[in-house]
Write a structure and sequence with these properties.
There is one protein chain. Helix content is 39%, strand content 16%. By secondary structure, it is of the alpha/beta class. The protein has one domain: TIM Barrel (Alpha-Beta Barrel). An 8-stranded parallel beta sheet has the order 1-2-3-4-5-6-7-8. Helix 2 runs parallel beside helix 3 and helix 4 packs parallel to helix 5. The longest helix is centred in the middle third of the chain and has 18 residues. 47% of the residues are buried.
Length: 273
């Protein structure tokens, strides 16, 4: 049985003292691959550098809506250079966040649209972040990407209508440790049966959203804890562990264009941001 943490941020300072040990704990928990999602130029470089150092790691590059106010054409040019690296398998995380509003709405929308167009041009799958946009992100997706989109809505917590709309666009659905949380995860658990098996991915969003089995002992989430997301999903679906694990593995590799048997093992040098 092998698991793929489809979204984490292990380049952060939270892991500077034990990053290698955290990855070893992940392996011991059955996690054999992780997608490290960049959120700005600096973190994208770190993500790609980490992915270049380990066969279990992949990277994505992009500007998170929180960082949209700092995005420029030069930044996108730099990310495009990083995206050439063979361990970069997606563009993201990008999207809109109208909850915390670290960047103004028009700025978020402009740079999301620019990145969406760029990723489609580069033929890279996309990783989307959405929070409290009341359908605005869907409007942008439909206007800029008629047809279907390869990628994932990470940390999905939307409504049934949102779910249907994302599925209609061809996107996968990323499920985090929220599904393990008694109150916060109840709406998501009610929708699980409506997600087609071939569209499900599991993720930690580490260091955030520590699953309930671990959150009373550990403040920081890490890739090993995706196993708790997997086990909760297995119980909800009533599926055999090996069948579910194989399904999720193939789903994630397909979503990110990764060969499920070999992956990408090429190495090239990088320049700093």
């Amino acid at each position: 049985m092998k698991l793929f943490d489809s979204h984490c941020h292990i380049y952060g300072a939270e892991y500077d003292d034990d990053r290698d040990a955290a990855l070893q704990r992940a392996r011991e928990a059955g996690v054999v691959a992780c997608m490290i999602a960049g959120i700005n130029a600096e973190s994208a470089f770190k993500a790609v550098s980490l992915a270049d150092s380990s066969d279990m790691l992949y990277a994505s590059v992009g500007i998170h809506p929180h960082d949209a106010a700092n995005c420029t054409d030069m930044v996108l040019e730099y990310l495009t250079e990083l995206a050439i690296h063979p361990r970069v398998c997606a563009w993201g995380e990008i999207g809109l966040d109208f909850n915390r509003m670290h960047s103004p709405k028009p700025v978020q929308e402009y740079w999301m649209a620019r990145q969406l167009d760029l990723a489609l041009e580069l033929k890279l799958p996309l990783i989307f972040h959405e929070r409290d946009t009341e359908g605005r992100m869907l409007e942008i997706l439909r206007s800029h990407a008629p047809g279907t989109i390869q990628g994932v809505v990470h940390c999905f917590t939307g409504s049934e209508d949102d779910l249907s709309a994302y599925l209609d666009l061809g996107l996968c659905i990323g499920i985090t440790g929220i599904i393990t949380m008694e109150k916060r995860g109840a709406p998501l658990r009610r929708l699980i049966s409506r997600i087609p098996m071939e569209r499900m991915l599991i993720e930690t969003d580490a260091p955030y959203l520590t699953p309930s089995p671990e959150r009373n002992r550990f403040k920081r989430n890490e890739p090993a804890f995706v196993r708790s997301v997997f086990l909760k999903l297995m119980n909800l679906l009533g599926m055999d562990a090996e069948i579910l694990a194989e399904t999720l593995w193939k789903n994630t590799c397909r979503a990110f264009g990764i060969d499920p048997a070999t992956g990408n093992r090429t190495r090239i040098s990088l320049r700093s941001a």
